[in-house]
Amino acid sequence: MLFPDYRPRRLRQNEQFRRMIRETKLSVDDLILPLFAISGKNVKNPISSMPGHYQMSVNNIIKEATRAKDLGIPAIMLFGIPDKKDPLGAQAHAKNGIVQRTVKELKNKAPDVAVITDVCLCQYTDHGHCGIVRDGAIDNDTSLEILAKTALSHAQAGADMVAPSDMMDGRVAEIRETLDENGFSGVPIMSYAAKYCSAFYGPFRQAAESSPKFGDRRTYQMDPANSQEAIREVTMDVEEGADIIMVKPALPYLDIIAQVREEIDLPIAAYNVSGEYSMIKAAEKMGWLDGKRAMMEMLISIKRAGADMILTYFAIEAAEELG
Ligand code: PBG
User: Fold this and answer.
1) Residue 188 contacts residue 244 (beta carbons within 8 Å)
2) How far apart (Å, rounded) are the C-alpha atoms in residues 14 and 21?
3) CB–CB of 43/55 below 8 Å?
4) Which of 21, 256, 283, 292 has the fewest CB atoms in 10 Å of its CB?
5) Ligand 1 atom closest to 202 (CA)
6) Among this protein's residues, is 248 annotated catalytic?
């Protein structure tokens, strides 16, 4: 395979040939759209750090979910912004909480879009941590019960899948057991298995009003320098009963996606997080790059690394592009 016998450019000379030898394809089936639910009627608060995204009351969530479905997007990931916060995150598992109410309505009015719910406490606790605080530290084992209760309340409201993002040890097993004991053995768990402590969550924390009030998330989210540990985390979650495992963020962790793909025989999701979205939006606004092309290139890179599905704020735009 040496020049001049082999000339790679022969198969790049027209779009037909390029299509024929394209190795990775992005499909609308791969996309999951994150949405932010808030109380009220007809609310659509723009999230300034994430142009095109809003905190929405249920009627607008239904509109957006329906739009996603009409474009062929199979699922949404739902986050809630509660009316009140407290030390134990009681609204996370309240029967009439924001996620529970929104899921019920969604399953009534837009049954054809799968609803995955984010299971975490950071939006619901007044300290903004993903677990329960005891003596100034995040207490793993007391958090588990509350997380499991939260997942159960989502399933009872009609969630099609639950997605724990808290990074407490042992939460997948606890959630699986609680769901099974209560008649929800059919509800799958998408576990945020290798979730790194990342600056790229910045815009999301504004969107979800979930910044920690003291310290940071380093005692539970992973150190960006580690990859073997990601395999240990993922393996644990598989053994605890996860159905889909997630790597998050996506772009700075493509190597992790590829390694997990090698090791694990389960569907892999990658979360193309808020900062990855906002970066492109900002650069596009400055006229520094072609936003649409950068979006498609980024999404295909995540697929090429080995992800089966991508949670992305670009879901609608990408689906339109794939049209
Ligand atoms: C909650 C959660 C976070 C994200 C998803 N679920 C933020 C965090 O851990 O602070 C980030 C998503 C994004 O940045 O798009 N635990």
Assistant:
1) yes
2) 11
3) yes
4) 21
5) 14
6) yes
Distance (angstroms) between ligand 1 centre and the Cα of 198 equals 9
Measured by CA distance, the residue closest to atom 5 of ligand 1 is 165
pLDDT of 147 strictly over 90: yes
* Cβ atoms of residues 118 and 165 within 8 Å: yes
- The Cβ-side half-sphere exposure at 89, using a 13 Å CA radius, reads 29
Is pLDDT larger for residue 159 or for residue 207?
159
10 Å CB burial of residue 227 (0-12, 13-18, 19+) is middle
**Position 237 confidence tier, pLDDT thresholds 50, 70, 90:** very high
Best residue among 162, 201, 246 to mutate for probing ligand 1's pocket (most ligand atoms within 8 Å of CB) is 201
Does any ligand 1 atom lie closer than 6 A to the CB of residue 168? no
Residue 104: pLDDT band (50, 70, 90) is very high
In this prediction, residues 94-112 reach a mean pLDDT of 97
Mean pLDDT of 266-281: 98
Q: Which two tokens stand for residue 26?
A: 């992005």
Superfamily (CATH) of domain 26-322: Aldolase class I (3.20.20.70)
Give residue 21 CA to ligand 1 midpoint distance, Å: 37
The pLDDT confidence band at residue 1, using thresholds 50, 70 and 90, is confident
- Judge whether 195 counts as a catalytic residue: yes
Q: Is 105 buried (19+), middle (13-18) or exposed (0-12) by CB count in 10 A?
A: middle
